[in-house]
Write a structure and sequence with these properties.
Length: 419
């Protein structure tokens, strides 16, 4: 059994950023465990641009963005193991993993950062009726087939779900010569960024059908068509609205789920809303010394925000190892009145850093105030012309507002109508 000060599980954008910042904070005994054969995570298959505008002030592709952080890790000579699958972790911070070269490995860590990313929700989770023919892919799988493996999934495509990956794949399939017949969205709004709707659908005259879903898949051997229908306000299909669309491919872009199987093994408390860990403002979970950041914590819309959050987690993990972080009294933060969730869920009263809160709303709201209320008193308010579930909102509290939150008994993040 080997001993490591800091083990980071995941070598994608979150893990790389956390490793870099932990090193810069003075921690040298760091090990990154990555199950793929190269660092960079999902960014390696995201060959479109739009990354890095916040972090590097320039527009990069996914591989270019990943390369910036990989270079930082290599320059610092941070240790990493590729092709290494983590089999388990426990609340005592014991990590068991395996790879072809070393076989079974067991480490004891002083701190662990979970940077495992997220996975796509599969067909089985959404209960679509119909055949089990070939031609049904998750959007991310189709992206890998085209961008990494060089295979074309199909020529006539329907996409279910308007998440960012689905929107981007509508454009990518079009570039490759396929005909995207429609993007079908169950909700009356998109779960993706507005810029992706404009650049990936509107620019190519691809129809986006809100309040519709797929109710049947037809085909023998290969998908030959799908049947879609409008849904009512309870999201149930409306009889008589069915229409059949001929296609050979159905892509599913129906949501992402934080990859938290390892978290459960270590008795890390998970949020029923985000699917990720419950954390304090240091990104530490309720399991002492285990931190979480990036999409394993909550699904982000921009990788720049993943990097920012993960760099903070790396610095705080380094401080924990040095004994600078003490778990004292905390203030809980609730999400109410239109706000679906807020991260972090707890704030340390003895911390001296300005607070930054990340949150998402549960519907489309216009002309509202995004507020932080402490013991009934409004300490922060920002007018918003529109807020949508597809775009994560950030609340930056100043020194006075941070102090008010840390000195209260209960804080609430909510929406209020603009009068």
């Amino acid at each position: 059994m080997s001993v490591k000060n800091l083990i980071i599980i995941g070598g994608g954008p979150a893990g790389l950023a956390a490793a870099k910042s932990a090193y810069d904070a003075g921690e040298r005994d760091i090990l990154i465990l990555e199950r793929e054969d190269k660092l960079g995570g999902i960014l390696n298959q995201c060959i479109h641009n739009g990354f890095g505008l916040h972090t590097f002030k320039e527009e990069l592709t996914g591989p270019e963005y990943a390369a910036r952080y990989i270079d930082e890790v290599l320059e610092r000579k941070i240790e990493y193991k590729l092709g290494t699958t983590v089999l388990s972790i426990d609340k005592n911070k014991r990590v068991t993993c395996a790879n072809e070269q070393d076989g079974l490995l067991v480490y004891e860590a002083k701190a662990i950062i979970l940077a495992c990313g997220c996975r796509e929700r599969p067909r089985g989770a959404i209960n679509i009726a119909g055949c089990r023919a070939a031609g049904i892919f998750s959007a991310g799988t189709a992206q890998k087939l085209i961008n990494i493996d060089g295979y074309m999934p199909g020529k006539e495509v329907v996409i279910l779900g308007s998440g960012d990956i689905g929107l981007i794949m509508a454009r990518r399939m079009t570039f490759q010569g396929a005909k995207v017949k429609a993007v079908v969205e169950l909700m009356p709004y998109s779960s993706g960024l507005n810029r992706n709707i404009v650049q990936c659908l509107n620019d190519f005259d691809i129809p986006l059908m809100f309040s519709h879903t797929v109710v049947d898949i037809k085909g023998k051997g290969r998908v030959s068509s799908v049947v879609i229908a409008a849904v009512d306000d309870k999201l149930n299909p409306i009889k008589g609205t069915e229409q059949e669309i001929k296609c050979d491919t159905l892509l599913l872009s129906v949501g992402l789920l934080p990859e938290n199987e390892l978290s459960k093994m270590a008795d890390v408390a998970l949020s029923p809303i985000t699917g990720g860990a419950i954390v304090d403002d240091d990104m530490m979970t309720e399991a002492d010394g285990i931190f979480a950041c990036g999409n394993v914590l909550h699904v982000h819309d921009l990788v720049d925000f993943v990097s920012e959050e993960s760099e903070w987690a790396g610095r705080r993990a380094a401080a924990y190892i040095k004994g600078e972080k003490v778990n004292g009294e905390k203030v809980g933060i609730d999400a109410k009145d239109g706000v679906r969730y807020v991260v972090p869920q707890f704030v340390n009263k003895d911390g001296d850093e300005l607070l930054k809160l990340k949150m998402r709303v549960g519907n489309v709201y216009k002309d509202v105030k995004l507020c932080v209320v402490c013991d009934g008193e409004e300490v922060y308010a920002r007018k918003c012309r529109i807020v949508t579930p597809g775009e994560m909102e950030t609340i930056n509290l100043n020194e006075k507002q941070t102090r008010a939150l840390k000195n209260c008994k209960q804080a609430v993040v909510c929406l209020k109508a603009v009068k």
